[in-house]
Every structure is written in C-alpha cells, then in structure tokens.
Amino acid sequence: MRRLIVLALFFAAARAPAIAGAAPAAPTPAAAATEAARQAAMEGYLYFYPLVTMDLTRRQSVHPSRGGQGAPANTFLHGRTLPEPGAATPWANPDMLRSTAWLDLTGGPVVLSTPDTQGRLYTLTLLDMWTDAFAVIGKRGTGTAKSNTAIVPPGWTGTLPSGMARIDAPTAHVWAKSLIQADGPADDAAVHALQDGFVLTPLAQWNLPAQARRLRSDPSLDLKTPVREQVESMPTDVFFAYAAELLRKNPPHPTDQPVLAQLRRVGLIPGRPFDFDKLDHPAKQGMRRGLRAARERMAAAAGRTVRDVNGWQRETASIGVYGNAYLRRALAAQAQPGSGLPEDLAVLLLAADSEGMPLDGAHGYALRFESGQLPPAGALWSLAAYDGNGMPAAPPLERRALGSRDPLRYNADGSLDVRMSHAAPPPEEQSNWLPLPPSGPASVLLRVYQPGPALLDGLWAPPAALRDAPREETPEGGEKTEP
User: Fold this and answer.
1) How far apart are CA 48 and CA 41, in angstroms?
2) How far is CA 400 from the centre of its chain?
3) What average pLDDT does the structure give for the chain?
4) pLDDT of 211-221, one tens digit each?
5) Phi, psi of 102 (to 5 degrees)
C-alpha cells in the first residue's frame, strides 16, 4: 500500500506543471529559424575553426615574402640552433631542433625522404588540414633507417615506384613537423647534416634533376596580423564563406555527418559555395548569435581539462587526434595548432610548490624522485626552466636543461634529488642543479619523450617541489635556517 501511495505522489508531481499552468507557447517560425541558425553556426564555428586556422597558417608560411621565417611548399625550413636566453620563442624546446614543411599534394604525391639517423631520436608528424595527426615517421614507429615514403592525396590512383612506402593523406595539403635530438653546440654539425637529409620531392620529379620552384604571391593575404587574431576577428559572413571554400578542397571526415547536417539548414553544403547574403533575416541573425556563442564557449572552456597534481599541470584531454570532439579540437588549434601525439612527447608544467605557492626565482626548491619513480621515458626526459613570460631562463652556467642525458648523481637507494634555484649550489652539487630565472615568476617544464603507459594513463606524476625553509640572520650576522 505504501508503495502505491509513493507512486501516486510521483505521478501527481510529474503532472502538476501541466495542470497548474498553460503549456508554453510554440515559437514563431521566425524565432525557430533564428534558433536553428544559431545552433548551426555555433557548432559550425567550432568545427571549422581548426581548418581556417590551418589554412591561414599555411598561406603565411609559404608566402615568398616570409624570407627566413617561411619556405615554399614542399621545402623544409630547419631550425638550426637550440634556444638561447632572451632570443627564443616562448617555451622553446632545449632538447630538439625543429623542422617544418607544408606539402602541396594538389599536383600528385610527394616523396618524403628521411636519412639514416643511426638511432638518433626523431619524430616527424604529418597533420591534415583539420589538425589531426594522421601519420608519424620516426624512431618510435618506423625506425631510424633511411627511407622514401610517398604521401598520397585523396583519390589518387597512380602507381608508385617499386618498394616505395605509401601514406594516404586525408587532405591535399599536409603539415610536416619534425623534432630531432640535438645535444648542444658540439652536436650542431652532425644534426644539421641529418636535417638536410629530410627532403621533399614531387613524385613527378622523382629521379629527375632538381627543378626551380615557381613562387606565387598572394597579395590579399595579411602577413602582419597573427593568425589567431585574424580568425577571431572575422565577421560571420567572411568566416563561413571562407570555411565553405575550404570544405570544397578538404574532405570532411566520415563521422562529421551530424554537424554537416546542421549546417545544411543554413545552406552550407559540402562542395558548394556559401552566400550569406542570400539568407533571410532570421537566419542571418541566428548565425551571428551562434558565432558569438561559439567564441564564448571557447573562452569559458579554455584550460578546463588541465589536471593539477603535486603542483604539476597536465592536459588530460585528447591531443593530436580529436574525433568528433570539435570544441576540444578548436581549443587545441587556438592554443597551438599542429600538436603531435602524446605517445611521442608528453609535457607537464610545474607552476606551484608543495604548498600551492607559485614558483619564484627568489627561492630554491628540491625535487626528489624516489627509486623506481623517475619519469617513465622510452627515449629521454628533461627539465627546463622559464620565466614568467615563458622565455628560457638565463642560467649562470651553460645549461639549457637537466635530464636523463646528463651525468646525474643518484643516491645510494637509487633516488634522485634535483636542486632548482637561481643561485648556484656548491660545485660538488651542480650535477643535479637546474638554474631558475632571477627573482620573479618561474615555471619548469618536464618533457618526456616516448612516455610509458603509467604516464599516458595518468598513473604517474612527478613529485612536488619543496621550497627551501626561510633563512634569518643570527645575532653574529650569520644566517640560520628556521626550524
């Protein structure tokens, strides 16, 4: 009987709103059209944001006026020096030299030739125009022997030379990004020679003498304004017209059907140009609202997937391959277009000490990696310090980073103590010293190359940084450590 009473009360409560008040009025056709267009534009902006970002990045990179900051299509641009304090980009990598190239497959396959690095670590990631990493060449997967691989555009049905490997690209333009291990100035000549061994050759020119490249200027392109600023200032009509044009050249992924179905409601159909001016007023109004809503979603969601453990921050959402996580993909393109796979490189940021206080170069810190708890790296790991702007620290010694390549001094039980400070410790303790920037905000990046499952699965985290106890002067003018 009690059960029947509870059920009766439940159903009565469920029916109460309908009995107590009139049903909400159905939206007018104009309001419904506005809302449908708003929803389509909001999802469409997140969907297209990486594609538009990549195309502007590509166009800027291959423009003839870029000089040493760019290179023609199918040509590698090599970074030749490791970062120096005061003359580097933010968060510069102290372990690897970078190379980058934009492949143009509109005329057919392009052959990627790689040298024999004789075991030296390198990773060459190929990204499609949607920012997905669709292939990786390098030590982890394909090895370090000399190779020739044809990167083939969608729909190509020709024949490759006998024995040549093949990788099918999802789009006709591809971004190649390479990292190759560099061990300081003494290693420059060797690593430069290896970099020069990475060559791109159109298949039509394979085994033929090198031909002069025809460079095309793009007078309509804004080369001064950063790509992100250009994308995020585009009016609604300009953004979606540009996106529709790119969609004609870059096939959507097979699983994109749901968002493409939404976009059809506003006349944006794959393979066709999009004319915003032909929409009626409710649709135009809805699309403008949707674009604003998408930008607000990105701003609200930025950084929400970062996990903090022991003062170390790590991105927990997908990187490199995103599936239908369009918001996540857009945020990754906004922060750093062209991210590689975490299986090749995992990065953790130390921003706070064990008490939750921000790192500061005015203090010293200790990190203790217990025995068996060193970074799980299949290749190598390193720690590098940066100032409040992400610029490399200017250490008193010539040391860009500290890590597994260095002659570290381990304790008898196998543990490792790392000292982090601006002031140099005694000479006998400098083997395990990571110099911090001078007084002011500081941070440390831990890079783990070919991380093991424990790190990838979130089961391993670095130890907390213990800040040195404050020191006070003794009556005699000396110093003592507070208890």
Assistant:
1) 10
2) 22
3) 90
4) 656 666 677 89
5) -110, 120
CA distance 434 to 403: 9
Please report whether residue 237 resides in a domain. no
Distance CA 2, CA 8 (A): 10
pLDDT bucket at 478, cuts 50 / 70 / 90: low
- Name, in order, each residue with C-beta under 8 angstroms of 253's C-beta and a sequence gap of 6 or more: 130, 132, 170
Please say if the pLDDT value at position 128 is more than 90: yes
CA distance 407 to 138: 26
What is the tens place of the pLDDT at every residue in 243-257? 999 999 999 999 999
CATH of the domain at 455: 2.60.120.600
In the chain, how many domains are there?
2
Q: Phi and psi (nearest 5°) for 377? A: -110, 130
Distance CA 421, CA 440 (A): 12
CB-CB neighbours of 280 under 10 Å: 11
Task: Label residue 476 by pLDDT band (50, 70, 90).
Answer: low
Closest CA to 326 of 172, 135, 130: 130
Which tokens belong to 286? 């809805």
Q: What is the dihedral of CA 291, 292, 296, 298, to 10 degrees?
A: 20
Per-residue confidence (pLDDT) for residue 12, from 0 to 100: 38
Q: SS3 for 331-391, per residue?
A: HHHHHCCCCCCCCCEEEEEECECCCCCECECCCCEEEEECCCCCCCECCCEEEEEEECCCC
The sign of the dihedral angle between the CA atoms of 431, 90, 378, 122 is negative
At 70 the pLDDT is 81
Cβ atoms within 10 A of the Cβ of 6, count?
A: 9
Per-residue pLDDT at 258 exceeds 80: yes
Sign of CA dihedral 47, 340, 308, 303: negative
- Provide the residue range defining the domain that includes 465: 342-473
CA distances from 45 to 35, 240, 244, 256 (A): 15, 8, 11, 14
Sign of CA dihedral 213, 219, 225, 227: negative
- The reply to whether 428 falls in a domain is yes
Among 14-23, 300-309, 340-349, name the one with the lowest average pLDDT: 14-23
Q: Is the pLDDT of residue 4 over 50?
A: no
- 388: in domain: yes
163: CATH: 2.60.40.1610
Residue 172 forms part of a structural domain: yes
DSSP string, 89-119: -TT--SSEEEEEEEEE-TTS-EEEEE---TT
Q: Phi, psi at residue 244, to the nearest 5°?
A: -65, -40
